[in-house]
Amino acid sequence: MLGLMQDWPLTVDKILDHAKTWHGHREVVTRTVEGPIVRSTYAEIHDRAKRVSNALKGWGVKLGDRVATLAWNTHRHLECWYGIMGIGAVCHTLNPRLHPDQLAWIINHAGDKVIFVDLTFVPMLEGIMSQCKGVERVIVLTDDWNMPQTRLPRADCYERVVREQSGECAWGGFDENTACGLCYTSGTTGNPKGVLYSHRSNFLHMLIGLQADVLATSVRDTILPVVPMFHANAWGVTFGAPAVGAKLVLPGPKLDGASIYELLESEKVTYSAAVPTVWQMLLAHLQAGRLKLSTLKRVTIGGSACPESIIRTFWNDYGVDVVHAWGMTETSPLGTTGTLTPEVAALPFEQQLPTRLKQGRAPVGVELKLCDDAGNRLPHDGKTQGRLMIRGLAIAKAYFRGDGGNILDSEGFFDTGDVATIDPNGIMQITDRAKDVIKSGGEWISSIDVENIAMGHPKVELAAVIGIHHPKWDERPLLIIKTRPGETLTKDEMLDFLKGKIAKWWTPDDVVFVDDIPLGATGKIDKKVLREQFKDYRWPAPEPAET
Ligand code: ADP
Q1: How far is the CA of 524 from the centre of ligand 1 (A)?
Q2: The pLDDT of residue 520 is above 60
Q3: Neighbours of 342 (CB within 10 A)
Q4: Residue 546 has pLDDT above 80, yes or no
Q5: What integer pLDDT is reported at residue 502 of this predicted model?
């Protein structure tokens, strides 16, 4: 027997419809690529997104066609998102931090017909356009005044396009399983792979994000997503904010500490989300200028492991609560969040820290398990490390165009490529990426743990640990440090700092200092490049002492 409830397809156009109807006056504030701050509202965003839809229809874009964006977080980008998705076209967010050749490859693989591009990226796109024969036209996200001379195909100015269209356009009306968004993984191994979100998965993922134990954003929040809309749906924030009618502040191209601080204060931001490196820049700016944060209450930090120093400084010096989160492109991306259970919340802050450093618990709709290499389940005892496997309502079941073949195990779980522990309370901790874990004498050393502690040293800006071949132990950890500007640090000082904080046999056998540590396209340390840089590294003689 079927239930007798209404059929209400979960399509994301309904989110912006809702925002327009019930929160139409609420502001969307953008630091534009051109420079000035622009103030808009959900009603205006809705009207202009419909104009984008009409333009797309006029250019022959149909259900399932891919339309790309190459853009920062701005009101125009938001309008494109909803304008594309609203008519059942697929919004393909391109990551501008990728190498241009890789971008060209992705554009072709996706089969993008139209590209909306920010001024910043026009030269880059011009450089690769001859390789992208399928792109029919490019719209530059700017006004007539700032429209550049360009040789991009059928280039047009966004504001002119929007001005000439009508704001009346029917959205939705298609199956909720219709493809909605496309985002490529950054391809740290092999070619990038496309994750194809559906309307239903994005809608349900948005609801997951709104739970009090996940992002917990509400109409009383002013939200600044530093997480880019071009990577993993900005963690769902640009769906969740209009859904609840929260004021949205979009930082455009300026993500440095001073610019983010200015927006946090001038717009009275209460909630923000970003990767650790962004917060490190902000905290450095606050400390250098002895500044205060007057409205910020909560931040979600994820994308890579959040160092303890960030969590502690935010709380002790600024009264900001950090929630650590884990996820990936394939998981929409929210997989776990570290909001506290009552038992941990009752402890003094310092005693909460070991739990706060973990990546947290799965919300309803997300299932986790740990497996060994043969696919056998491993215990959730908080000690046993295993491959982290995930299944749920917004988790990829295959890659676009079937790349990578079958990506699920016999129980329908996706292998995240991460190594983790899960404790009896369901709290998950990422110990490493499977390919980064250091195998020493048959045991695993977590590079993340060592990096986290090293990053807590006041003179350290970035720390990375990689495994280097060792004749006796197979691999041993090498600690690579970039110090803060103007600081000097010695190997012995660093190793002294680690003493007592990690197991003795986890202690790096050597510490090297570098001018820079390479970051990948999603702002994370690029260990593939680091391993290449250190491929000729040899342990100092004599051989490292036995541990
Ligand atoms: P890419 O693989 O392209 O870097 P993703 O954003 O999909 O892009 O990366 C997801 C990966 O990032 C996860 O599999 C995990 O290794 C890492 N990651 C994400 N959040 C965290 C976190 N809080 N702690 C540790 N690692 C994390």
Answers
A1: 8
A2: yes
A3: 6
A4: no
A5: 87
Tokens of 169: 């356009």
Provide the CA 26 distance to its chain's centre, in angstroms.
26
- Strand, coil or helix: 403: coil
Q: How far apart, in whole angstroms, are the C-alpha atoms of residue 347 and residue 345?
A: 5
Residue with the nearest Cα to atom 26 of ligand 1? 304
To the nearest whole percent, how much of the chain has pLDDT over 70? 98
Q: How far is the CA of 522 from the centre of ligand 1 (A)?
A: 9
Task: Encode burial over 464-497: b for 16+ CB neighbours within 10 A, e otherwise.
Answer: bbbbbebeebebbbbbbbebeeeeebeeeebbeb
pTM value is: 0.92
Task: Kindly state the DSSP code that residue 470 receives in the 8-state scheme.
Answer: E
Joined tokens for residue 364: 């309803």
d(CA 132, CA 111): 9
Residues in Cβ contact with 126 at an 8 Å cutoff, skipping those fewer than 6 apart? 150, 151, 152
DSSP three-state, residue 223: strand
CA–CA distance, 149 with 223 (Å, rounded to integer): 35
Helix (H) / strand (E) containing 52: helix 42-58
Residue 368, strand partner residues = 390
* Six-digit token string for 345: 């919340």
Pick from 475, 463, 462: which is nearest to 509 by CA? 475
Residues classed as catalytic: 185, 330, 439, 444
Per DSSP, what are the bridge partners of residue 443? 440
Domain boundaries, the chain: 436-533
Tokens (6 digits) for 471: 């004749």
Distances (CA, A) of 35 to 119, 163, 316, 402: 11, 21, 34, 42
Of 73-87, 169-183, 310-324, 456-470, minimum mean pLDDT range: 456-470
Residue 74: CB within 6 Å of ligand 1? no
Q: Which CATH number fits domain 436-533: 3.20.20.370, 3.30.300.30, 3.10.20.310, 1.25.40.20?
A: 3.30.300.30
Provide the CB-side half-sphere exposure for 56 (13 A, CA): 36
**CA 12, CA 200: separation in Å to the nearest integer?**
8
Strand order of the β-sheet with 386-392 is 366-371, 386-392, 414-422, 428-433
As a whole number, mean pLDDT of residues 234-256 equals 98
Centre of ligand 1 to C-alpha 338, Å, is: 15
